[in-house]
Amino acid sequence: MRAYIPAYDLRVPGNLSEALAILGREPGVWQPFAGGTDLMVLLEAGKLSHRKFLSLTKLADFRGVEVTSGAVILGALTTYMEIQRHPGLQSEFPLLCTAARETGSIATQNRGTIGGNIVNASPAADSPPALLVYDAEVELVSERGVRWLPYHGFHTGYKKMQIAADELLRAIRLPRRAEPWKQYYRKVGTRKAQAISKVCFAGAAQMEDGIVRGIRIALGSVAPIVLRAVRAEASIRGKKITPELIAATKDILGHEIAPIDDIRSTARYRLRVAQNLLAEFLMQLAR
Amino acid sequence: MSETVEKIEIACLVNGEWRSARVYPLARLLDVIRGEMRLTGTKEGCGEGECGACALLMNGAIVNSCLVPAAEADGAEIHTIEGVASGDQLSAVQSAFLECGGAQCGICTPGMVIAAAALLARHPHPGDAEIREGLAGNLCRCTGYQKIFTSVVRACESGREKSPGNR
Hints:
The complex is a heterodimer of chains A (287) and B (167). With 287 residues, chain A is α+β, with helices and mostly antiparallel strands.
């Protein structure tokens, strides 16, 4: 049932210091509100965890995409639409653009933000696998200062993150790579448009004379957090892709992920699809 | 009864006219438009951002108004279905929906027309895949979609569609 709207507050601070002061004064009381494409759905269902929300919409330094010689830095409020239309991201970080294009509808992509997708912390989110493959880092700000963390490890359990109650996620940094990597992204959902993933897979690899030199694999919807498959990666690194290696790595991945039955799919289906996506990715590398 | 917060004053440029309302900050823009501003052309379908019936243009971009809180719409430029026609002159999309049977029960139609107008504003000559992508966020339970698709193709052919924001 819809929440009783008059009981909910949404404050719209005009600048960062004002926002951080509100969070610092009552940590845990105010929940940051970005595009609202998840929180407003919870409002409709009467399942919001907070009564007070802090809109980030007027925080100018949370917006925009900055390209430097070493990295691309995305403001946390960069929308899915801004991501997929950014020429620099399209050429160097195509998995992120594909993830953005396959998340929700255009109306959702115009409101939903990359930072919101991260801190909403759904294990079924579509952009985090791409962020893990790109070795992203996240910037957290509070009245106490600024810190950067690797995104890998940021999620510590279901809906648990390394972010304090007085901190805001301000930016995401994607290091640029000089050498080209082969890249793969595939989302499997009930239908093509605006489905939530049953399984989502992102992979990137650097090949040299048929040998896998560098490899990164990440999956969504197969564990309590979006997962970097480090054991599967280790079994591939330094090797040539063969049918035997693919079979062995599928097995390792099967033990590394922990899919569940839920309203969208079953554990058995997710396991099979995750392994098949891995095989498809590896066969593309071998080509 | 729960403790209630104070209402806030917001103002939006709605179809070219400044409108203000006193609303709760987390009120849905959909309810502000329909209830406070009495523009009931925008419909509520699912209320959770899945169906697109409540779509409108906010600062030129299509959004589902059931997912936009009132406090964030303050100062925004809004275009609703009521602003798509110029007086008695229907837009190309609206005429095409009439000609091709793109509307049946009518609940999805305002959102479909807004989505089509947003698509054509960006791609005046979209391909089939672009039309399908442009309408993918809007659900219809009557038409089976084909007549809606045909309507958008017809609107492109007639070539006189303008974005409501450019009028």
